[in-house]
Each structure stands twice: as C-alpha cells, then as structure tokens.
Amino acid sequence: MTLVTRLIPMLLGMLLVWSGCTSSFKGGQAAGVLPLDPDLQLTSKAAYHTLMSFLMSRDGKKGDALEHLRKAVEADPDSPYLRFLLAHQLAQNGSVEEALSEANKAVSLAPEDLRGLMLLSELQLSRGMTEEAMGNYRRILQIDPGNLEAAIRLVNLLREKKLYGQAVEVLEKTATARPKDPLGAYYMAKLQEEMKDVEAAAHWFRKALAINPGFTTAYLELAALYEAAKRWEEACAVYRELLDLEPGNQRALARLGQLLIMQDRFQEATGLFERLKQMHPASGEIRLKVGLLYLELKRYEEAIKEFQENLAQGIKVEQSRFYLGVALEEAGQTSRAMEEFRRIPNTSELYPEAVVHMAGILEKKGNLEEAIDEVQKARQAAPAEELLVRYLARLYNKARRFQEAVELVKKALEEDPNNAKLHFALGVAYDKAGDSASTIRQMEEVIRIEPDNADALNYLGYTLAVKGIRLEEAEQYIRRALQKRPNDGYIIDSLGWVFFQQGKLEQAIKELERAVELVPADPIILEHLGDALLKKGEFHRAIELYKKSLELDSEERTEAQKEMLKRKLQELLERQK
C-alpha cells in the first residue's frame, strides 16, 4: 500500500473539515456542503494534491496551495467539488476572472449544489453581473425556499433597485419556509421599516418575538421603530417588556430613561439611571446624568454630591463644575455658585452660560450695573459670542439703555447677518425703545430666515395687534405660532388680543380666559382679560383682574403703562360708587 493510499482516510476527514471552513459568505447560515465526489476517493493523484493544497493553505502558502489544486483538477476534471475548491482559492488569490470560470464549471457539473451557486453568485456580483447573480439566488431559493442567506442577498439587490414589492415577496416566502426561525420575520420587519410602514414592521417584529420571546435585538429594534415614529408610550412599553425579561439590559435602561426625560417624567427616569449607576459606579457620564435628574427634581444636595464626586475623580470636569454651580445657585448658595462659575475657563463651551448665570445672580440681588459689567468683561474674551450679546442687550433694555442695546446687536449682525436670534434680539430692543416699525421689520426678517419661528411669529402678530394694524395678517402669524405651540398661554393671549382689536368680543374673552388658565400670574394677560370684560360690561370681574394685575410686577410693562392701568382701575371704581 502506497503512502497516499494510506493517507486517503485521513484526507477525507480533512476535506470534510475544509468543506465547512472555506465559505467566504458573510452572515446567515452556510449553504449546503458540496458532496465528496466518489471518484475523488479512488483517484490517488487528486487526493494527494488536494491534501497538499490543504496543508499549504494552512501554512499561509497560497501560491503553492493554488498549484496543488490545479493539479488535483487536472487529475479529476469532472469533480464539481474540486472545481469549487479551485474557484474559491483563485478568488482568495485575487484571480477573480479565472475563479468565475471555474465556479461556472462547478455549477454546470452540479447544477443544484447550493454552495457552488452561492460562490458563483458572489463572484458575479464582484464583476458587476447583478442580473446573473440575482438569477442564481432565485435558483437557490427554488431548491431551498428557506435559505436565509440567499434570500437576504437577493433582497438587498432588490432594495438597491427600489423593487420593494419583490423584496417583500422573497422574504415572506423565506419566513414561511422557516416557521420556527425568528430571523426570517426579523428581516421582514427591517425591510418594512425601510419602506416606512411602521405598522407592518411592528407586526413582523412581534412575529419574530412570538417565535423567540428572548430575542433581545427584536425588542430593541421594535422600540427604536416606535421612537423614530415619535410614539413614545409604545416605545417605553417595549423597553419595559424587555426589562421584565432582562432587568440588567443596559441599553434598554438608558433608552427608557432618556425617553422618560423627554416626557418630563424625571422621577421615573431617575430610578433607571440610579440602577445604571449601580452597575457602573465609576462612570462619570452616568453620574452626571443622575446629578442632572436630581437637579430637575430639586434634590439639590444630592445633585451637588454627584457633581462633586465627578470633580474629585477628574471626570467630566467642565460639565460637572458648571452644573455644580447651577445646583448651588438653585439651593440658594449663590456665593459658592459664583466661585464655581468663575473657575470655568473662557475657552470652554460652557463659559458663556456660566457668565449668564453669574450676571443673573447679580441681577436678582438688584446689582444690575454689576451684572452688565460682568457680561461686558466676559465679551472681551469672547466678543462674538451670540449668547453674551443677546443677554447684554436684555440687561441694557432693563436698565433703559435702549440705544446701547440697539447698537450692540446691530454691530453683532454685521458679522453674522443671517442670525435669526440676533435679529429677534434687535427687534426686542427696538420695541423697548418704542420703535415699533423697526420691531416689525426685524421680526419679519426672523421669519424670512426661520419661517416656523414661533416666538417671532407671535411677537410680530402681537405687535401688529397692539398697533391695531394689519389685523388679518396678525391673526395668521399667531395661528402659525399656535401650530408649533398649541398650549402656549402667551400665544393664546396674542390671539385673544387680535380678536379684541377686531371687535370679536366673545372670541376674545374665550381665548383670554384660556390664556389666564395656562398662565394665571402674568399681569399683562390679566389686564387684557380685564379690558375685554370691561368692554362687555362685566365691571366687577374687570376690577378684580386689574387689582390682581397691579399686584404682580412685570419687566414687560413700563411705569407709564402701570400708571395707565391704575387710572383705569380708579375710574372704574368711581363709576361703581
């Protein structure tokens, strides 16, 4: 017995291993293994060269491996398996055209062999032969309707051609052929998601979960689907389902927590992030998030502790210091807050906000000029910072330094002429200075730049209403603002005032009463409702509203306007005697 003959049993075992390891396919399940050709077992020369090719390939000698495979095929040219091996090795060596030729020969020798068809399709795609590859994927699916790898590859090609109907048909058949495999349903869900059909995608995700209730990825993808559709409650419900199964799923905890924050459900979100913090006690990012939630819940001492811990660890230093300042400010520890804000460098992105907080503390203490000085000094380090420009303009307005406010913002606009926020600030400055015509022009400019800017739409509509001009336009501007913020009491007040100016008294009272419900402590809105009720003849209610309005202070009302309201109230009281 020759050496090669003695080696053949071992060779056959190696070939079986080889046949399970040579696939270059990505993802999915491997296609069927080519059957060993009976002649190969009897042809010692082919067997020898195949074995040597395996050994050379194992040692990284691709050239030698290829030469041995060529000799194996010469020895047994009718073996589809050897031609498949040769095609595969040629492809690995970069000889794609020759590999394609050998793969075609392998498939012609074994037309229903799945691995040969799959390799041929892959080589055809590499040469841009898309239609031919699609045809071979369809052949595979005719032979094996549940072949997920072929289905996915065919579907991807159909997606590229926007042939979604055909893609759906392919995946439906594959999913039907694999009733116990959730992947068919999962990929169908992903396809429906791409087609923007939320309901169909959700149906198929649920179908995948019905097959495998522990399919974590399907839960996460279903929740993400609802998130993208802004269906927050359904997304939250899916994350909760997953957390019932996997209480420690960190992605579900984080995403659910974030969704709850978006809905201002801070108490619930805090519990989730506290759980994440227990899992990752060294994570500064999670500790920062927990501190911010404590801040929202007015649990200031706990927030302070979280931010201080980050600072002690040197983690998220600038953010933690800034929010430590905010927490100290809210807790009434303004001196310590100022110290923390001052430690934020002027190179930090948070520096402008820190300056605004410091100026705000000074302003609340009645030190308006000191607040102005604080911002002016900060602008020396950041002269083009928009936030500082706008805040300084507001302080100038409050100090009745209207012309300085106007000039400040105009100069900033020279550098950034299409900045909607600066145009808005300039419009406000003109309004405070009593130049309503310029206010109107600036708000129109904001709307030109940002057509859906609810603040500018409301400001422009209200300004027109106060002037009693262009009232139909004013109403349209305000209605556009309400489309963006339908429950905004200030915008509803503006609509009520338009109706008042139009003489639509009942409509005005209805809107103004709704505005008072939403913003019960705004003196201007109270006065507006009082004016409407006075005109209707409801003097007692008007008197009560005027009194309440005068009890409240407002930066929006000048001393002259306060005196006018006092006279209105006095005249009304005298009329009631």
- What is the CATH superfamily classification of the domain at 345-434? Tetratricopeptide repeat domain
What is the overall silhouette? elongated
CATH class of the domain at 345-434 reads: Mainly Alpha
Number of helices: 32
CATH architecture of the domain at 345-434: Alpha Horseshoe
Helix content: over 70%
Our measurement of the CA-to-CA distance between the termini, rounded to an integer number of angstroms, reads: 133 Å
Mean pLDDT: 90
Instruction: Find the CATH topology of the domain at 345-434.
Output: Serine Threonine Protein Phosphatase 5, Tetratricopeptide repeat
Radius of gyration: 37 Å
* Percent range for β-strand residues: under 5%
Using DSSP, what is the number of strands? 0
| Main β sheet profile | none
Structural class: mainly alpha
